[in-house]
Amino acid sequence: MKICVYGAASSLIDNHYIEAGIELGKELAKRGHGLVFGGGSHGMMGALAEGAFEEKGYILGIIPEFFKEAGAEVSFKNCTEYIYTDTMRERKRELEENSNGFIITPGGIGTLDEFFEILTLKQLGRHNKPIAIYNIDGFFDELDAMMDKSIEKEFITHDCKELYSVFDNKEEMLEYLENYDEKDVDISKVKIR
């Protein structure tokens, strides 16, 4: 299974997130999954790739050309394969098309953008791949509360929360992804307001 993992590119984040990223990357490789990611060498992205690389896992880095031009320090050097794109939009499309499932780890605006895009695409029936939020140390508690408030205020339907799952435990999250059966998830019942 090729699993796209979204996460922070910042090298300023607390080290316990980096450690969690390395461990997740290792576990993906140990379970025989390929890592598909944004190709960065810093933050959660770099940590995930480093972990997968340590366990000799497959790593697909999808990188905009302008990052490549910025120099080697921006891109993870040890990817198995690279795809270069002209724009960030193309990068998101390639990440989605080259993956069988998604994990969202702590990150910034780019990570949130990627999450909401794949969530919207699933809501619109453009894919039915599993989406898992890795809620390290409660990082996404407020996001989940915002989704609940959006349901309460009727901006979105309750069905939207069935399009993704939130996990505090890495093993449970990976089991969810590995056992996901798109036939068990009826995305046609999700109503668009």
In brief:
With 193 residues, the protein is α/β, with parallel strands linked by helices. Helices cover 42% and strands 16% of the residues.
Summarize the structure in words.
The chain is an alpha/beta fold. It has one domain: Rossmann fold (3-Layer(aba) Sandwich), CATH 3.40.50. Helices cover 42% and strands 16% of the residues. The chain contains seven helices and seven strands. The protein has helices at residues 15-30, 43-54, 65-70, 88-97, 109-123, 141-152, 170-179, and strands at 2-6, 34-37, 59-64, 81-85, 101-104, 131-134, 165-167. The chain has a seven-stranded parallel sheet, with helices on both faces. Helix 1 (15-30) links the parallel strand 1 and strand 2 (34-37). The longest helix has 16 residues, at 15-30. It is globular, with a radius of gyration of 16 Å. The protein starts with a strand and ends in a 14-residue tail after the last helix.
